[in-house]
Amino acid sequence: MSQGPLRVNGRDCAVQAAAGTSLLTVLRNDLGLNGPKYGCGLGQCGACTVLVDGVAARSCALPVEGVAGREVTTLEGLGTRDALHPVQQAFVATQAAQCGYCLNGMVMTTVALLRRTPQPTEAQARAALSHNLCRCGTHLEILAAVQAAAQAMAERA
Which InterPro entries does the UniProt entry name for this protein (predicted)? Predict the structure, then answer.
């Protein structure tokens, strides 16, 4: 049994989990955070993406003990219903979701991209999101959301 504080969305959370338990399992089952989704369980689809110290990471393939002492941010930690994060707002404004299953990964990956590249080209956005799967085909709207978020964040600065 692995035990210890886990820092999620700015809060310390006491967690008990067997060694090797995925971060995704703890986030969803123990902490009740439903932003990250279970997709493939292999770290290949991106639905489970969270930020670990600001870097996009696949929580289904990351053992919970691997994030000890690090800051984990989920979709729920970005903004609130009344004050969405600029990336969340851009995805809403551009109608970048259909079924919404990939949305968590797309948003979290976009947040990480804009932290390291505040004004990405379309090619940079495509490359950053290339490992996030979307079956509904809203790729053009997603790319528009990335650019809209970049612009909104630049205007805020």
Answer: 2Fe-2S-bd, 2Fe-2S-bd_dom_sf, 2Fe-2S_ferredoxin-like_sf, 2Fe-2S_ferredoxin-type, 2Fe2S_fd_BS, Beta-grasp_dom_sf, Diverse_Oxidoreductases
Which residues share a beta bridge with 4? 15
Contact yes or no for 153/86 (Cβ under 8 A): yes
- With 80 as the cut, is the pLDDT of residue 63 above it? yes
Side by side, the strands of the sheet bearing 2-8 are: 11-17, 2-8, 71-73, 49-52, 55-58
Whether the domain at 2-77 and the domain at 86-156 fall into the same CATH topology:
no
pTM (two decimals): 0.94
Query: Of 3.90.180.10, 3.90.230.10, 1.10.287.40, 3.10.20.30, which CATH number belongs to 2-77?
Result: 3.10.20.30
**CA 64-2-47 angle, 5° bins:** 20
Q: Residue ranges of the domains in the chain? A: 2-77, 86-156
The answer, yes or no, to whether residue 4 has pLDDT greater than 80, is: no
Average pLDDT over residues 10-31: 95
